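Q: Two folds, back to back.
A: First:
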Amino acid sequence: MNPRRKKRLSIALVIILGLGSVTGLVLYALKQNIDLFYTPTQMIEGLGEEKVRPIAGQRLRIGGLVLPGSVKRSSEDLKVRFQLTDNKGGIVTLEYEGILPDLFREGQGIVAQGTLKSATVISATEVLAKHDEEYMPPEVAEAVKGIQHTKPKYGNDTK
């Protein structure tokens, strides 16, 4: 092999190795930012045929309905603790510190993002509530298909 071909081959190998390294680093960085979506039943029973469950410390998103009667607010600060269900038997507890969305109510669909503290307790960093009577986030709608929503009663409202 002549010197010119050796030089071209070595340059091509360096470029390929460099691109491979950059691709690997990008994929590694993105892996840390992926938040998997779960329903309460999927968190308890696991996902897929292998029944893979999230591990403590893992970031995730969870969606479902706020269990009526489960919202407990702290009197000293903005901490709120409530339970989420998908009406398939799964119930998980969410802990959130902050101001909840105006549309947050018991019996309403929500999506929360946070970190798993234990098998059924999530420390939420963000809580999203649906914005009108007809809308539900696609992940939640798929997870709780067929569940009838109950409208909260306000004061003397007889509807």
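A: Second:
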Amino acid sequence: MPHTPADKKRAITRLRRIKGQAEALERAIEAGAECAPLLQQIMAMRGATNGLMAEVMESHLRETFGPGSKEAESPRSGDLDEHVEDVMKFFRTYLK
């Protein structure tokens, strides 16, 4: 869960964008739009949802393994920020 005001604002902005896309998709389906524009809108929604998921995952990883966490205080913690970045790079690639 995003904890800083900036992170919360960014998450809410993404959610509102997804909501707007879903409403536009609903209107397009009701209007009998062609398949290609519908698929394009669905892909845009998927991208927005994946972006939100990546942000929440990064927040969770930083909270769990970042400075001040129990995991960060363990002797094996090393460069946790670097490890979190590596995981997030992989995760973002997977979501594309």
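Q: And?
A: The mean pLDDT is 83.
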